[in-house]
Amino acid sequence: MASRTFISGNDFPIKGHCCQLLWACLLFLSTALQAAPPKAPATQFYADDIKAAMAAHIQELSQVDGYWRTVDDKTLDNLVLKFVQVHDPVRQINQRVYFACTDFHEQGNDEKIYDMDFWLEPVNGAKVFQTKVHKEPRNTLLYGWYKHPRYTFVNDEIEYLY
User: Fold this and answer.
1) Helix (H, G, I), strand (E, B) or coil at 154
2) For residue 68, which of 85, 80, 55, 59 has the smallest C-alpha distance?
């Protein structure tokens, strides 16, 4: 019958502290690798996902009577707006930020359109974390109502026009 021989730290050619350190490292690595949860894959949203998140967000904003009551981020005017559309394309700015541009008309005037921008992050689906008036309605005698831009985008960063 064959006998089993266990190798102890004293049986290795490298003696003393080096062997103990090696065993400690191996033990640590084996437990660390077993304990580490697998990383969840990064959530990827597509145009339809962003549009669905925007539809849900806008519905939540306008639950009472179909109008969204908000404050203009620049003029601080109270706005009462009705949703018109989400512009194409919606886009991904970076791994953690998505963007949608929308149109809302002012209550009582379908021609007075605000272009509202929404930034979303992938939290419990997609969650809006910032909203700005991109274009405000202006009126001219020659052209009527048009959307006047407050800012533009350069490399997905806001550049204010005035």
Assistant:
1) strand
2) 80
Peptide bond into 38 cis (omega under 30): no
34-46: pLDDT as tens digits: 554 555 555 677 8
C-alpha 45/C-alpha 94 separation (Å) is 11
- Helix, strand and coil content of the chain, in percent to the nearest 5, comes to 25, 40, 35
Nearest to 70 by CA among 82, 80, 83: 80
pTM: 0.70
Give the number of other CB atoms < 10 A from CB of residue 19.
Answer: 16
Nearest to 46 by CA among 125, 155, 119: 125
54-78 pLDDT, tens per residue? 999 999 999 889 999 999 999 999 9
Rg (CA), the chain: 29
pLDDT > 70 fraction of the chain, expressed in percent and rounded: 73
CA dihedral in degrees (98, 103, 105, 111; nearest 10)? Answer: 160
**Whole-angstrom Cα distance, residue 69 to residue 85?**
17
